[in-house]
Amino acid sequence: MFARATAACLLLATIASGCGDDGGDSGAPPLTAAWQAPVDVSRPGDHASGPRVAVDGRGDAVAVWTAAPGENASAVVVQSAARPVGGSWQRPVTISTRGSASSPEIAVDPKGNAVAAWTSYAARRSSVQAAIRGAGGRWSAPVRLSAAGDTAARPHVAFDARGNVLAVWQRTRAGRSSIRSARRPAGGRWGRSVAVAKISTRGIAESATPRVAVDAKGNAAATWITATIGNMGTVQAALKPAGGAWRAPATLSAGGGRSLASQIVIDGAGNAVAAWLDYASRVVRGAVHAPGGRWSRPKALSRPRQVAGGPMLATGGRNTTVAVWANLASASVASATRRGGGWQATVGVARGIDAFGTAVALDAGGDAVAVWIGNDGGSEQGAVRAAGGAWQAPAELAPRTAGLEASGADISVAVDPQGRNAVAVWSRPIGADSFVQATALPLG
């Protein structure tokens, strides 16, 4: 759990956001901690972008990103760096080999074992590749997960508590697309890929962007978009019991095929929780699958007429899930929390800021950390919330400096299960270069 104090939370002079805006338990004392000064994680001249970060049970962090050393677009590589809790970021290493890489993802298990997966482009074809890093060790050589002859992209990975890895991605072959999955047992090798579902996208350009979640016991859930208009379409999801096969997919979103940005988690009680953006109404919606039950009807999480962006999900504890998104019309960041059997009312996280690129992380006690990029001259910001309490006033993760503007929606955050250490990473252009930067929030 995060360290707590009884002092009232402070308002930032530049952001109007109140302590009592959450509507949570007013008796929960606020969290007290300060983000450390940001540091450059990537090297000068590497043109780094798209970072992702994960934190293990001790609080040690591992990040991945893409880099184009020397501005050679044909040699985009995946790089990684690690940070022991309380220490400094280690020197980056390149973990991809041949081809040009994109869309890296990272996951760690409680012991510190890590898996990275990415899309690799070579010989006019894309494939999905992955590498493994033992706790405190070195990255293995990359392994191709997709089959020869497939065009594959957009991988996502997750660990269970025993160190088994599950990966999902989109495959296109002969003009037909599907969602594929592969599993790697702890200490073993990747198995052959299996089909999760057929989808109606005509190719990788109409990205399904699959996501996967695995609980401590090895039960899995995946979600994706069956695209019909660009990258928008119908939200679907499939479940996989531990040791079993993928079950038939279910359609979660309403008709019309105008949804995108689906996300999924599994909480400690075994509930699979999905969220997505209904683009037609610009409302964030969520659905839940309880163990042994069915998917619930979609529920609106954001408020009408606020023009919500795509949500991000995180879960912690036995039955707590938090969704965070940006409201474009009202220039704010908002969140909704699911505790026990239902979603609570939408609350504000920050106001007076045009935000995008939100991310959120929870510890095992339900304490939350949210981060986002401000479209106001380029500022990365974050806020924390004690379980059952209110979101505290946002803080800037990096100073606003002329010429150092935020880059795209590339921001990521992770926290260890005990809530002792949160780590955020993002990318920033600096002159003609682009750097991955990071900060940490020691929480007790």
Which descriptors apply to this entry?
single chain; 444 residues; mainly beta; 5-stranded antiparallel β-sheet; 4-stranded antiparallel β-sheet; 0% helix; 48% strand; disordered N terminus
Could you please describe the fold and organization of this structure?
The structure is a single chain. The protein is mostly beta strands and 444 residues long. The protein is 0% helix and 48% strand. The protein contains no helices and 33 strands. The protein has strands at 39-40, 49-55, 61-67, 77-83, 93-94, 100-108, 114-122, 125-133, 143-144, 151-159, 165-173, 176-184, 194-199, 211-214, 220-229, 232-240, 250-251, 259-266, 272-278, 283-289, 299-300, 312-316, 320-327, 332-339, 342-343, 347-351, 355-362, 368-374, 379-385, 395-396, 411-415, 421-430, 433-442. The strands form eight sheets. Strands 22, 23, 24, 25 and 26 form a five-stranded antiparallel β-sheet that branches. Strands 1-33-32-31 form a four-stranded antiparallel β-sheet, with no helix packed on it. Strands 2-3-4-5 form a four-stranded antiparallel β-sheet, with no helix packed on it. A hairpin with a 5-residue loop joins strand 14 (211-214) and strand 15. The protein starts with 38 loop residues before the first strand and ends with a strand. Mean pLDDT is 88; it is low at 3-27.
Write a brief caption for the model.
By secondary structure, the chain is mainly β. It has strands at 39-40, 49-55, 61-67, 77-83, 93-94, 100-108, 114-122, 125-133, 143-144, 151-159, 165-173, 176-184, 194-199, 211-214, 220-229, 232-240, 250-251, 259-266, 272-278, 283-289, 299-300, 312-316, 320-327, 332-339, 342-343, 347-351, 355-362, 368-374, 379-385, 395-396, 411-415, 421-430, 433-442.
